[in-house]
């Protein structure tokens, strides 16, 4: 199979982990006789420095032309601590999602058995947890009107959803629920927010089209609590952009670390595959970032954009094998397990490549 992949490392550890992700793609190409070609493009802080824009036109054009995008992360402490900055790295990410029509962000939360002890949640609560989040990605408060008024002393952001935006993501979630345990949980704040009441109305209207799927509704605050109390009660979860952003960072603790969670952003055109984590300033440049989220994003890319199920499974098996052999990056190491072999980013990548090349 011939495919063209655009690698967009972005900022901070984004560059460190996508380097490994690309090596994994190439190892798969070699093993299975595929011809993958690659290009790179700028986004985020590095793009602002080079061009003045967080998403240069050239990057967007390359994204539109690619068969898939492997994305790292954006963000720089300079902006986090300067609320007045007008051009910001995160604008590049949001614009990319909007321009490419990436309205569905799939975030699988799957705990590898070997990491049962890496989480701060009790193993008996965690064992068997397997959740698929559908986070709406091009609407909500991230895209509504925002403004400073009252001479800068007051600010507002608008949480806004249209029916069609809710319907398309909810239908995707129902379809996925059909292929899993036929349970869908929709998360909103319909006891307070009008946009959430619209969300719930749409879910209720669509539900009869999927009579084989049992639907439950949870308010975001209760859902956040239940996720930790009893993660196994969830299977497919669908929610808005903001709630999905927050809930999935929380859910990363079910999988052991932010460094374990991959995602697929899909919709109207090229799919973008990205870890759920950010640029992680606190560990940038130290060579300790966990590359497994990027590697598992490669597995999603292979399966979803290219339909290469066997290749995707081999990547997951490689991650499983490395964990079974006791290899850990710092974030998933258990200080009580002396047999853990703690590796840096590249060395963990090498373990995965060794498996794929064997
Ligand atoms: N998709 C994106 O590009 C995202 C960008 N950001 C940006 O990233 C910057 C940092 O934001 P934070 O709130 O610190 O979130 P973050 O996700 O970058 O980091 C949160 C914590 O998780 C750890 N962590 C994250 N990824 C890891 C990995 N692969 N291996 C080991 N540990 C890992 C970090 O060291 C940090 O302690 C900000 O500028 C923010 O705006 C944040 C989230 C998503
Ligand atoms: C930086 C945000 C715009 C994105 C984010 O936190 C995410 O997509 O998980
Ligand atoms: Mg986030």
From TrEMBL:
Residues that hold Mg(2+) according to the record: 221, 245, 249
GO molecular function: 3-isopropylmalate dehydrogenase activity; magnesium ion binding; NAD binding
Function text: Catalyzes the oxidation of 3-carboxy-2-hydroxy-4-methylpentanoate (3-isopropylmalate) to 3-carboxy-4-methyl-2-oxopentanoate. The product decarboxylates to 4-methyl-2 oxopentanoate.
Compartments, as annotated in UniProt: Cytoplasm
UniProt-listed Gene3D superfamilies: Isopropylmalate Dehydrogenase
UniProt catalytic activity: (2R,3S)-3-isopropylmalate + NAD(+) = 4-methyl-2-oxopentanoate + CO2 + NADH
Residues in Isopropylmalate dehydrogenase-like domain copies: 4-352
Organism field: Spirosoma profusum
Protein name per its UniProtKB record: 3-isopropylmalate dehydrogenase
HAMAP family listed in its UniProt record: LeuB_type1
InterPro entries recorded: IsoCit/isopropylmalate_DH_CS, IsoPropMal-DH-like_dom, Isopropylmalate_DH
Main EC class the enzyme belongs to: oxidoreductase
Enzyme Commission number: 1.1.1.85
Family classification: Belongs to the isocitrate and isopropylmalate dehydrogenases family. LeuB type 1 subfamily.
UniProt site positions, description: Important for catalysis: 142, 189
Gene Ontology CC: one annotated term: cytosol
Coiled-coil portions: none
Self-association state and partner proteins as the record states: Homodimer.
Pathway(s) this gene product operates in, as recorded in its UniProt entry: Amino-acid biosynthesis; L-leucine biosynthesis; L-leucine from 3-methyl-2-oxobutanoate: step 3/4
